[in-house]
Amino acid sequence: MVLLFALALLALVMSPGLASAQVVSSSELIENSAKFDGQVIIFRGEVVGDILRRGEYAWITVNDDAYSRHPVREGGKLVGGNQGFGIWVPLEETGEIRHIGGYRHRGDIVEIVGIFNQSCPQHGGDMDIHALELSVIQPGRSYQ
Hints:
Layout: H1 2-13, E1 22-23, H2 26-31, H3 33-36, E2 40-54, E3 57-63, H4 66-69, E4 84-90, E5 105-106, E6 109-117, E7 128-138, E8 141-142
Parallel strand pairs: 1-2, 4-7
Antiparallel strand pairs: 2-3, 2-6, 3-4, 5-8, 6-7
């Protein structure tokens, strides 16, 4: 599986797809899932929940809802629900994550460059993003 991932990454790096990747929100991905299916995209948001390790990979949840931008604990308003995506990421990429969002923590804000799947055949037909790169762009923190 790691070899297949490495070959896919190499093919994308050598193609114009990575250079033309655009920043998209979870709303845009849901509303235009067929358009973005199989495309390299950039997705930004707060890491929440847990890092679910699965061998050499892990699942993380990245939310880009109103709460990821303006947490209630920091004066944000209660508006709408939580919204984000499950991200399938090589375990080594998760090493940079220091804070995972929850009631007592503001999670790291990350940028994911990855392949969007409208219906992932590897993961039971779920909508997900397979990360090629993960970067922490704003560190989280603990609330006192």
